[in-house]
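Wed. Picked up where I left off yesterday with CmcJ-like methyltransferase. The coffee machine is broken again, so keeping this brief.
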Amino acid sequence: MTHNFICLSCSIMETSISYLAQDPIFEWEKPFDTDVPVDHIPRARAANHKNDEREVTVFPIIDATQWDLEKHGFCFIKATTGLTAEDALTRKEEVQKDYWYEIEALLHQRFPQYSRIECYDCTVRKRDPDFPANIRLYAKVEQPARRPHSDCSPRGAHLNLDHAFPGQQEFWQGKDFDILNVWRPLRGPNNDWPLAMCDWTTINPLTDIRVNDAIRRDRVDENAILHYNEKHRWYFMRDQSVEDLIVFRNADSMGKRAQGFHCAIFNPEANGQLRESVEVRCVAFR
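Structure written out below (tokens, as returned):
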């Protein structure tokens, strides 16, 4: 696939992305961050990250059908789902399983290579008016994530399942599986802090990706973060509707497939409602 079809009339976006800086500290210390308050702990750090803020050009999705999960790390599904913004924001625990079943059915229809798909996580985000100036820890609803990342590493994929399905390790140990996300806005059309995807074919896995410990209140996950590379090509869907689902692979159990590195980006032309979004994470067995 080539990307020479972009034209001026397609409204490319000039913005910035907060990459992870290439810091010498990583020669002796693994990157980490936490969403647990640590101010009360002497000499504790919430992270050992430094920002590498870069000006980038983000290109609009012109033809959603041209993107392939296996090649680019992400793709799109056009579908109507039943989860409303009101229910997601006020009754998530009560309605998320029905939404999971819808997502599982859509994925089975689109990706016949998967023999079994099970959703296990649902995250709802509603941007605060003062984000990103003030990012609150453990807010009732999560905020957009500015750092380009993949939600889990290959090791983190196993840690995810250990947490989501305790005592059932025999069902995934040694198996070939992917951890997929399905992301969409809860209200549309959305242009406020849209989700941007990095084309996997423009990422150098040997130099651009840094594995990171994500410290939670009850466990330690492992995800992956991006360092800057001028070859990266970023894309977003302008005026994304609630029926425009982005599907991306966070990681696979073998560590050999395309990953969907992503982040929320500031859109200088946004003039609509503040972003509300929902994302489901699932395990898909081959």
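Quick read: The longest strand covers residues 116-126.
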